[in-house]
Specification:
This protein has 16 helices and ten strands. It is an alpha/beta fold. It is globular and about 65 Å long. Bound molecules: S-adenosylmethionine.
């Protein structure tokens, strides 16, 4: 006899969600390849016929139409008759020539993460990273920074993933109460640039490993901010952090184990003045650990990329900040999966 509950469930259930998640990499890789070959940058100059586009991008005729129409169906392109154009979103965020370009993270996902995530099961079984550092002693940043192309790609990728949050922090944090700020682990300088553009009274800059300097300075100069934003070279485990009214750490704490996280928070506390603030922002996991899938997957990405990094909840970070001495802490949502934890000394 059939189980009445089972049959009711199967009447209403479909496998659609499961299959769409399980085969999600088809759509993902289609977008990543489109970014890799510069499709959106080409179309940002104007709509193109199927034939011209296929020629310019050197696509084989066998699948060119399926590729382009798949991107139409996925909402990344528009098609009018035989002509293809960007959507307003893909034009704003995926044209390499625009400052709003976020494709750096997708380029890195395409060139590195896509492959490395193929070994997720091994990482889950061994607890070891699966990237360039796999099987070696090198840490993640040493491995990435050994190659200048990878260094630049990584730093640009950071700007891509952090731009939305950087703009939200520029808007939401009470910057009028402060005069100086330093982004610790600033990468290309995406956050300092957004904050300085929005608040003319602020000066400061970015602290990062010395090889990052020229790429930071070039990006800051390209926004005309070279006078107000400076690069502070150093190693945040070896050197003191620069003193400033506000210290920001974006996607920093999640790279490290718990003890290292606590050391970084303590070092920030040490150099802040009374009333100064530390901002940590990430794809914070929700306190119940059941909603922010992106934050949880980011933590798996830290498994793939780092020896012992992991993402954390707002409550976790507030308690570490409290232990370091911060007298007031709060969490504020930024944009999408990202939130910031603010600690006031
Ligand atoms: C994941 S990226 C985050 C970049 C940026 N804050 C953002 O959110 O887009 C981590 C940054 O920390 C820097 N970093 C790593 N180890 C460091 C160290 N020991 N001292 C200083 N900076 C370091 C890296 O160079 C990189 O720019």
């Amino acid at each position: 006899m059939e189980d009445p509950k089972g049959s009711a469930a199967s009447e209403h259930s479909t496998p659609e969600r499961i299959l769409s998640l399980g085969l999600g990499f088809w759509g993902s890789k289609t977008l990543l390849s489109a970014v890799e070959i510069g499709l959106f940058t080409e179309l940002a100059k104007g709509s193109l016929s199927f034939e011209t586009l296929t020629e310019r991008l050197m696509l084989h005729p066998r699948s060119a139409r399926d590729f382009l129409d798949a991107l139409v169906a996925l909402g990344m392109l528009e098609r009018e008759g035989d002509r293809y154009s960007n959507t307003s979103e893909s034009d704003l965020f995926l044209d390499r020539a625009k400052p709003s370009y976020v494709g750096g993270i997708l380029e890195m996902a395409n060139a590195r993460l896509y492959r490395f995530w193929g070994s997720l099961t091994e990482a889950l079984r061994t607890g070891h990273p699966q990237n360039e550092a796999k099987g070696g002693e090198e840490d993640f940043f040493a491995a990435i920074y050994a190659d200048p192309g990878r260094l630049e790609g990584f730093l640009k990728a950071m700007t891509g993933i952090s731009l939305g949050s950087a703009m939200a922090i520029a808007n939401k944090f009470p910057w009028d109460r402060y005069e100086t700020f330093v982004d610790v682990g600033a990468a290309q300088g995406g956050l300092p640039v957004q904050v300085a553009l929005a608040h003319e009274h602020l000066t400061g800059g970015g602290f990062d490993l010395p090889p990052v300097g020229p790429i930071f300075e070039e990006y800051v100069d390209s926004h005309g901010l070279g006078e107000r934003l400076h690069f502070y070279p150093g190693d945040f485990f070896e050197d003191p952090l620069p003193a400033a009214d506000v210290l920001v750490m974006g996607h920093i704490l999640h790279d490290w184990d718990l003890q290292e996280k606590r050391i970084l928070i303590e070092k920030a506390y040490e150099v802040l003045p009374a009333g100064g603030a530390m901002i940590a922002y990430e794809a914070l996991i929700d306190d119940e650990r059941r909603e922010n899938a992106f934050g949880l997957l980011m933590s798996l990405n830290m498994l793939i990329e780092t020896p012992a990094g992991f993402d954390y909840t707002g409550a976790d970070c507030r308690s570490w900040m409290g232990d370091a001495g911060f007298r007031e802490t709060y969490v504020e949502h930024l944009v999408g999966p990202d939130s910031m934890v603010v600690g006031i000394k």
